[in-house]
Amino acid sequence: MQMSSKGRFLFALFLLPLLAVYVNLPAPPLTPMLLQWQDSGSFFIFEQHSIFYKDVRGYPGNGDALILLHGFPTSSYDWSKVWDVLSQRYTRVILLDFLGFGFSAKPKAHKYSIVEQADIVQSLCDYLEIVGKKVHIISHDYGVSVAQELLARYESRAEGHLNIKSICFSNGGLFPETNHPRLLQKLLKDGSLLSPILTRLSNYFLFKSGLLGYIEERWENRRRWIGVLNETRVPLHLIYGPADPVNPHPSFVQRFKSVVSESAVTVLPAHISHYPHLEDPRGFLHAYFTFVNSF
């Protein structure tokens, strides 16, 4: 039985106050695991904004550092299942929450950008005194664009560039033409009337403050960021979960192989989706170590 127009109107009048209350409720308390993650990290200041990071001291032998760049809309906690094993390979493993994410500052009315996030990574490396030392990068989702920007700076020998020795990408929008944002992302990005409600329901109030501008930024920097993948001699690899609806198989993998190389891809089992390092940490680590052992 269908609801009449009057019934729908009355239902909306009843629902809107409840939604208004829900939207303005305080955030839920952190879980013990997140509190422990926060307590094990530190903060540094970037242009008056506090940035959360973890600097894990690992294997003392090779002197190399590994930087882990998380995705959207999550945080460095995405790497919680793999970072301790990775620390057995590298002297230092560095994780951070990008500006607007996780425990880092979330300034309102701020124009967030991939370029600024790359500036933050460089500033953190300078703060930790690893600029000039060998750096390896693993990046996921939003973080792959930051890695592309850092790689472009390395290739042009821009001031303050990182000495990048390898990059591993995972399920991110390397190619805007093969990237398909989810409906939720589109609704939030377009600033629809549903945005405040969806923002609260997604438990992430900064969507409306410009974080989704990175989708357009990928198109604006497409030639530079894709071109550097083809031109660089830095070892590159892709670890890919093929059930990913954002970067669907096989078009995404085919595009990567055509730009980089046939051998630069590890496709995980068919059920692995957008978060391989969380869904299949053992497979992810095996693929990564096979990559780094190859050079």
Give a short synopsis of this structure.
With 295 residues, the protein is an alpha/beta fold. Helices cover 39% and strands 16% of the residues.
Largest sheet: 8 strands, mixed
Record field, number of beta strands: 8
Number of helices: 12
| CATH superfamily descriptor | Alpha/Beta hydrolase fold, catalytic domain
For this structure, what is the CATH class?
Answer: Alpha Beta
CATH topology, by name, is Rossmann fold
Mean pLDDT: 85
**SSE succession:** HHEEEHEHEHEHHHHEHEHH
Structural class: alpha/beta
Our Rg estimate from Cα atoms comes to 20 Å
Shape descriptor: globular
Strand order of the largest sheet: 1-2-4-3-5-6-7-8
Report, as a whole number of angstroms, the end-to-end distance. 66 Å
CATH architecture: 3-Layer(aba) Sandwich
Helix content: 25-40%
Strand content: 15-25%
Which blocks of ≥5 consecutive residues have pLDDT under 50? 183-193, 201-209
- For the record, the count of structural domains works out to 1
